[in-house]
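Q: Could you predict the 3D structure of DUF3558 domain-containing protein?
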Amino acid sequence: MAVTHRTALRFIPVVAAVALLVTACATPAGGTATPAPAESTASPSLDPTPSATPSPIESQATDDEISLPSSCDELFAGDLRATLDAEIAPLNDPGVTMYSTENAEALTVLESGVPSLRCTWGTPSDRGIATTVSIVSPAQSELIVDALTSSGFGSEEASGGMYFRTSQRMLSMDEEVVDLGETHFLRGNVWVATRWVNYGPDAYTPGIVAQLWP
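A: Sure. Here are the predicted structure tokens for DUF3558 domain-containing protein:
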């Protein structure tokens, strides 16, 4: 039928995404944090006047800003870690090379050299998860929000930040049903980007958020 034909055509990019799980490419394997560039030391202020007390908004922004975790083990704990180990181990198989997003504008930020920690779950197959936690500037965060919103992602305020989600169920050219999607979370100076194929538990990103802001 015509509808089936259109679905098959729409799945062509998805086949490429699944293939990234199966075959290696230039994308780095997970588990290594990319450090932030060294910061220059600022000259001490000569103004003897004490600084003003920060506003509640400024205080919250400071509280929301965190450092990049040093390893993927810091992101997964408790019941979530036990579930992932049981259902889609291992963590950081070097053969899993799927990107954490396929949104072109968001991917540009992800590949721009921002400090990042990449983590994956699963083996090279048609089932897996890729997550990247990145430190972003306010301008980059705004660009990501605009890109995801204009791409039709659903949004929700929760856990002190903003979630963006999208998911699809499609037929491959082999008539196999494939579920896939993305979940993004932005808060303070952090962007958590996750793409999943045939495995995307609801507790996954909230579990990471709970570890980043305990």
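Q: Anything worth pointing out?
A: The beta strands are 116-121, 128-135, 154-158, 161-171, 177-187, 190-197.
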